[in-house]
Design brief:
Blueprint (H helix, E strand, L loop, with lengths): L7 H13 L5 E14 L5 E6 L4 E6 L1 H4 L11 E11 L4 E11 L4 H16 L16 E6 L4 H13 L4 E6 L7 H10 L1 H4 L3 E6 L13 H8 L5 E5 L7 H5 L2 E2 L3 H8 L3 H34 L2 H4 L1 H44 L1 H6 L4 E3 L19 E3 L6
Parallel strand pairs: 3-5, 6-7, 6-8, 8-9, 9-10
Antiparallel strand pairs: 1-2, 1-4, 2-3, 4-5, 11-12
Helix pairs in contact: 4-9, 5-7
Length: 390
Amino acid sequence: MPRQILSVGELTIYLQSKLETDPTLQGIWVEGELSNFMRHSSGHMYFTIKDSTARLKCVMFKGHNLRLRFRPTDGMAVMAHGSITIYPKSGEYQLYIDAMEPSGLGSLFLAYEQLKEKLTVEGLFDNSRKRPIPEMPAKVALITSPTGAAVRDMIKVLRRRRTDVDIIIIPAQVQGAGAAESLAKAVRLLGMVGADSAIIGRGGGSIEELWAFNEEVLVREVASAPIPIISAVGHETDFTLTDLAADLRAPTPSAAAELATADGAQFCRHLLQLDSRMTRTLAKRIEQMRREVQRLETSAVLSRPERFLGGRRQEIDQLSVRMGRAMLIALENRKSQFNGAIGRLEALSPLGTLRRGYSICLNQQEQLVRKASEVHRGDAVKVILASGRL
């Protein structure tokens, strides 16, 4: 028989077609431990699934791994679903994965714990971020399904407690694909409706049905909402990440409505109590002031004012005498200072020198003569005395 010679590429393609048409190798589940996990910048995931005897290279493209509800890491035990094929360039067979979940631990629970840990580290659940819920809001927004039992329960409770409160319903999808995005969009609308507070929630259900309230996109929106939010998801035993991010968590939608508004009748009773307390306080204060007026009416100042005024007149007379004396002393001091200044000025004045017997001699050019050698016999001189000239 003639030999049939295949190239490496032809052999690889042949084996690839065999593997990809084998029904046993298409749509299979493989269990093992993740190893060499790498997320490429393209979004695709490359890793190995191994056990104690073998290794299997795996690829999970971006379109599939976006649906993962947990974060794969090395050492994690998983169950992967996919099909076996050969990668022609390396000639290695590998598993193309379209679904994957943790082995021995529910994928939803693992995703919940991983996201909870991440957001806790970021501080989204810190009590310091929590805001107080207004006791008497004028408007309350309800983010929920417009047709569910939860919205009817909340409206009923709100109307029972406060007939005057405005209720605005922001409809949203509360379960299924796209529910988290729908709820997050509704939360973003809170800044536009003028509500004082909001309730986000739904009735009970399975963890899958409530899962939208554990999605990161919604949890972050609730944590950064412009107004205080009460979370009321499911029944009392249900606890979602939205509950942790909200300003207050209620066990049920009806309980959330109770927490969102003060009871109208109770509030009226409280006002009556305040009115009674204020009336008693005012009456007590008025009585105190009446007694003070009576005390003043019987005081010496008001009963015998002449005695009080007489003493004040005497004080005024004494102060008047003291003030007159002080003014005379001040004037004498100023006079003495003035005379001293005059004496000092006269001592420095040329006229003062002339009055003491000195004179000033000027030549014909009106120049001061200081020495006898500055004039000659027959020169005319002018002598200035204290009074008169020669």
